[in-house]
Each structure stands twice: as C-alpha cells, then as structure tokens.
Amino acid sequence: MSELAQVLRPLIPSDDPSVLVDASTGDDAAVYLLSEERALVVSVDFFSPVVDDGADFGRIAATNALSDLYAMGADPLFALNLFAFPRSRLESGVAEQIISGGAEVAREAGVPILGGHSIDDPEPKFGMVVIGEVHPDRMMTNAGARVGDVLLLTKPLGIGVITTAIKAGAAPPEVESAAVHTMRTLNRDASLAAREIGVHAGTDVTGYGLLGHLREMLRAGGVSAEIEAGAVPILDGARELLSRGHVPGGTRRNLADLGPDLVWAEGVDEATRLLLVDAQTSGGLLLAVPEDRVEALRGALADRSMPAAVIGRVVEGTAGRIEIR
C-alpha cells in the first residue's frame, strides 16, 4: 500500500449497512447493496499517457478502468469519461484520438459512455468512472483467499518497465506492440471464466505490482503465500530494458514498501525482484482458486483464448507475508 493510501483510507470509513465493499480492504471497486439480488459496483481510474499514440492511450485507459469491475465479477452498465487536456492543443486532433480510442473499447465491452467531465490541463490525462452490477452472493473480492488455494495470473508482467522505455524512445517496436496488446486486452473473458468455475478471491494487477496486490489479498484474507518466481510470466524484452535502467519510480517504491513482508530465496536476482513488483497498467487478474478447480479454470480460460499461469499457493502464516522462491 502506498503512503498516500495509508493516509487516506482511515479518513473515509463507512458504517452504512448497505456498503458491502469499501476502501478498508484495498479492493478494486466499491460495492453497494441495492436489493437481495443486486449490488452496484463503482470504480474510477485515470492517468497520464503511457504510450505515444493517442488512440492507444485511450484504449488502454478505458481497458484499465473497466478491469476494476471485471476483477469484482461485475457486469459493466455504463461509464463516464474523465479527461484533462491542454486547451492550446485542441486543434492537434490528439484529443479526438484519445476519446475515440476509449469509445472503441467501451463498444467492444458493450458499455455506453453517458457523459463525463473535462478540464484544461497542461498534462493530458484520461480515464473513466465505471458503473456495474453484481449479485451480492457471486461477487469476487480480494478478501476470500483460503489456505490451500492455488494462485493464477492471466497476463504477463513487465508493463511498467516497457512503458518507461517507450517514454524514453528506447523500446523496440515489437516489444512496444506486444505491451500495447497486453494492456489493450479486456479482462472480461478472464472474469467470466472465473465466475463460471468459482474462485475464492480475485483482484487485478495494476500500480502496486503483482506482489503488492497479492499482499493486499493476503492481508484481507488473513493468510500468507508462496510464489514460484520462475513460473511468473514476463513480457519479452522487459528484462533487457530493465537491465538498461528503464525502471519506473513506482516499481522501486513498491519494492521498498513491500520489503518487510517479502522473504526472498537467495537465487532470486534483483531483476526478477523488480519485475515481480513492477507497477503495471491494465494488468491481468490474480485469482485464488481451490486446487480441485485449477484445471477447470485453466480450461475455461483457454476456451476464451486467455493465458493463465499457476504461480504459487496460499498458505498458513502471518497475514500479508509472501515467500518467493
């Protein structure tokens, strides 16, 4: 958890009995009970460009925002745009590219964009408020992981390293293209597969990195985990770019923040440590699934052309502690 999050969370407690999920567990979205069979799921996310192409930036930002709903097992209903852009550059056409890219993803997801808000800002930023719904008994939260659960990851890591290199003009075209494709891929099908098979807990991997979001899950569930570093998928080219110094500041902060809760085997090198905490944009889903359902889940994901890697398991131990081998 970032220092900012640690400061802010205690300031917004809720004692409303209709609140099913709030900020206290660091979950992906807020959930509010409407009836015995319906709950509203709401999230918001926006950020500055991670790629040079305006349309790709819009696509990635929209995919990233919708991911919060998919991580909760929710079906999106509609979205609102959040847009910051310098007025002096409105005639460049970039603003239209960004908005059009976001709209393209929304159409793919079957989600209407019903409005939004924009401001004049020297640094472009784009994202969405996303609203969805879920049956209260079928939502996925980050608090349900149980001892013995197997941990699956649906997208490779390394996005933060690669986007840092993109900004520096140092990422090879094929590496950039693969990273954009990964960020642009909706987590919808992974969410549907998880709901179909049944998982105990789920979250998406974004700014806190894989181990940061896993720690949130473990703390919320009061359990620990073991991770096989060699089983975690990494995007091609990420290690090479990292070796050249393209490491986001957020990734280094993640490693420092997580330090007390991580136990590293001697054979895990520094590059791997950084990649396992690399700050992701529009990353995959991290799922805790009962061992007897692992193959069924992998099959359901494969049927939807979604990759999945078994990367570890949930074990007894201090809440939030992660051993990496």
Task: Walk me through this protein's architecture.
The protein has 325 residues and is of the alpha+beta class. It has two domains: 3-134, 60s Ribosomal Protein L30, Chain: A (2-Layer Sandwich); 150-324, Phosphoribosyl-aminoimidazole Synthetase, Chain A, domain 2 (Alpha-Beta Complex), CATH 3.90.650.10. 36% of the residues lie in helices and 23% in strands. It has helices spanning 3-8, 54-71, 94-109, 159-167, 173-184, 188-197, 209-221, 238-243, 249-258, 270-276, 294-303, and strands at 19-21, 30-33, 39-47, 75-85, 113-120, 125-134, 150-153, 201-204, 224-227, 262-264, 285-289, 309-315, 322-324. β4 (75-85), α3 and β5 (113-120) form a beta-alpha-beta unit. The longest helix has 18 residues, at 54-71. The mean pLDDT is 94.
Offer a concise description of the structure.
By secondary structure, this protein is of the alpha+beta class. Helix content is 36%, strand content 23%.
| Count of separate structural domains | 2
Number of E strands: 13
Shape: globular
CATH hierarchy: architecture of the largest domain? Alpha-Beta Complex
C-alpha-based Rg, rounded: 19 Å
User: Briefly, what CATH class of the largest domain?
Assistant: Alpha Beta
